[in-house]
Amino acid sequence: MHLKEVDANLLVTLDALLVDASVTRAAVRLGRSSSAISHALAKLREIFADELFVRAGQKLVPTAKAIELAPTVHVILAGMESLLRPSKPFDPSLAMRDFSVAASEAGELILLQPLRQRLKPLAPSVRVDWMPFHREDNIDPLRNGRCHFVIDIEGAPVPAPDIRVLKLFDDKLITLARDGHPLARRKTAGRFAAADHIEVNSLPAIDLINRALAAEKLACNVSARVSSVLVGLLLALNSDALITLPASLAQILEKQFGLVRIHQPFGAVAFPVRLLWHSSYDRDECHAWVRGELSALAREIAGAA
């Protein structure tokens, strides 16, 4: 089949199905009937010689072929929208958009909540909503449009050329404990490692500390693994357990909860706080503007630190 025989609207339909995973919701998004979407899907299946979507209950699940096509389809449509968009300058005060941001609790408190406050007077109809951060899989949500940004504190390589990465600032780890903790004064690496440590599921803090302790063949004694920073804080306040957090978050919480810093008997453990997004949004003016505001906010945080 030649390119001239392919209706560009079929790609629009494919994109909507990838985002909504539903014929009905895709029809609503595009202002078309469900039967028209079903007819377009049948044509797409013929073109690509693949089912593209299979039904699982009320949802449509993309096949491996559809997942492979998704980033290319997003880029093509973004280019077409950019080509056809009027040249009127972007005005954030008139923009109406919803963005989903995947972040850990730390990312939400450090960046996402301050971003909401920052955008209120500048773009009152631009919303940024939190969604869960999955350490093992951040790429697919960006590719299929379920997520517009990822605030990443893992620092792991991103082996995906269609994912953009911007370092916002460098952070470091701070260990906190209740006031009057036995380790409040400087102690050896052995005493530090042997103390009870709280591991927060959404943060890589313990892994990073263990790398620093590895030179002395030590590792943290993890006494509790918890689901959230809040649970970890409550446990630290009511026991002799230590909790290690990004400095940008620890600086907020230590004063509010009356916690004290515990000396870490090794060099500062630094890690990058990064912003990830899919390349299909590179030329999206509103997306780019929000990226710029996030970057400016990050510079303020780094300057304050």
Short recap of the structure:
The protein has eleven helices and eleven strands. It is of the alpha/beta class and 305 residues long.
- SSE pattern, N- to C-terminal: HHHEEHEHEHEEHEHEHEHEEH
Q: Under the CATH scheme, which class of the largest domain?
A: Alpha Beta
Radius of gyration: 23 Å
Largest sheet: 9 strands, mixed
- Regions with little confidence, pLDDT below 50 for 5+ residues: none
User: Would you count the extended β strands for me?
Assistant: 11
How much β-strand is present in the residues? 15-25%
CATH architecture grouping of the largest domain: 3-Layer(aba) Sandwich
Descriptive labels:
305 residues; D-Maltodextrin-Binding Protein, domain 2; 44% helix; alpha/beta; Arc Repressor Mutant, subunit A; nine-stranded mixed sheet
Overview of the structural elements:
This protein is an alpha/beta fold. It has two domains: about 5-85, Arc Repressor Mutant, subunit A (Orthogonal Bundle), CATH 1.10.10; about 95-305, D-Maltodextrin-Binding Protein, domain 2 (3-Layer(aba) Sandwich). It has eleven helices and eleven strands. The protein has helices spanning about 10-20, 25-30, 35-50, 65-85, 105-120, 140-145, 190-195, 205-215, 230-235, 245-255, 285-305, and strands spanning about 55, 60, 95-105, 125-130, 150, 165-175, 195-200, 220-225, 240-245, 260, 270-280. Strands 3, 4, 5, 6, 7, 8, 9, 10 and 11 form a nine-stranded mixed β-sheet that branches. The protein has a two-stranded antiparallel ribbon with strand order 1-2. It is elongated and about 70 Å long. The termini are far apart. The mean pLDDT is about 90.
